[in-house]
Amino acid sequence: MKEDWIEVISSEILDIRDGTHDTPKYIQDEVHPLVTSKNLKQRVLDLTNVKYISEEDFIEINKRSKVDIGDVLFAMIGTIGNPVVIKKEPHYSIKNIGLFKNRFKVIDSNLLGYFLDSTTFYHQLQKKQFLKGTTQKFIPLGHLRKIELPLPPLVEQKAIINKIEELFSSLDSGITDLKKAKEQLAIYRQAVLKKAFEGELTKEWREKQANLPTSEKLLKQIKEERQRLYEEQLNDWKKAVKIWKKNGEEGKKPKKPKKIIDYPEIEQSSTLPILNLGELVFQISNKMMPNEAPEFPFIGMDCLEKNALKPHFTYKFKEFKSAGNWFNTNHVLYGRLRPYLNKVYQAEYEGVASGEFIILETIKSFSPNYLKLILHQQDFVHWANKQSAGDKPRVKYDQIALYPIKVPTIKEQQQIVQEIESRLSVCDKVEESIIESLEKAQALRQSILKKAFEGKLLTKDEIAKCKAQPEYEPAGALLERIKKEKTKK
After folding, report:
1. How many beta carbons lie within 10 A of that of residue 310, not counting itself?
2. How far apart are CA 201 and CA 376, in angstroms?
3. In this predicted model, what pLDDT tens digit does every residue of 335-365 receive, in sequence order?
4. For residues 112 and 100, is the Cβ–Cβ distance under 8 A?
């Protein structure tokens, strides 16, 4: 420990409490907000999405855990941490949140907030096994009271805070620029998709083509193909039923393909036919149990990241107990649960997927690559979100099947995909660079905090300047003096 510093246990200098663990009755009157761990975001208290409680509950909760200016809030469940130093007069109650009250005023609340946001603190939690829970992490109140805190002299604390804030200011400016660039990339991606599906990217290509079919002819070809594919499925089913009967009706009876649905007619343009999505795809819903496909890879909702799978989230289906749906190479998997509506995966192998996916197989005149990109465009995402508004967390196949799509020839679809991917590949490289820079910025932030709590952030001259101040006092002497003063009172 650095000279004039001491190490203390959090409960020696802080009054540490927690908010209610009960769920009070929520009401419509927007007078008394109830703050939870979800409202603590990056050292800021976000009150834009809170629920409200009655005055009776507000008073009852605040009897035990009233928040005051200078207190520090700390998320005890879920995303552990996100400390917030209270700067303004609070008017809310707290739930599942740690409340650090500065009992002896020997530590600056801002420094405490920085400590609770540091890897120095998190490494201590892991080392002492203070974090509990498997599916959702939490830290018991008793463990918050056993935290080891490095305590510098009060004058030095203020100098450390000033140095941290000075360094963070320039760092935050760079992070803001990086995040803005990332947002602009997302806008550019959508602009590329919009232009592509409006035919802008293949305009020159079309002008060079001879004998492109008319919209009417292309529409007729697509509908005839769909009818032909349905008849093939029906014949295959009839053959499968004969074999099933021949084998003594052992196992499940083969599932009859669904009849072709007559979708509402869409007013046609003069250039390209417009069809409902359901006229271009078949929904695959072949249920499989673990004992039927033990070696198939299983894809759950946590596997999706943008339009690709996280490789380390590829599990064997035998590890799961519930049923899933079989999929094959080039099938397009679409997350139908509200948080995953913009998550799409084009299968690269055969496997089994969670029932929270809609699995789509395209007709030959409709490229799965093209479908994947359509499902990524903002227009479709907004449209799908409307279908799951309110208390409808899931989108049904019947709903997305009504989405209208302009359908060029398969050759133009392939050309469009090529044009999109050539542009988006550049975006991917730029985004990788931005993400890497953001990770380095976060690492630098933690490096600054680590040095601060090791006593290495201030220079020798800055420390000498602190010691020259008349109110300078070693941390141990300060703590003892304040304890005696409190005892006398």
Report:
1. 11
2. 17
3. 887 666 668 888 888 888 888 899 999 999 9
4. yes
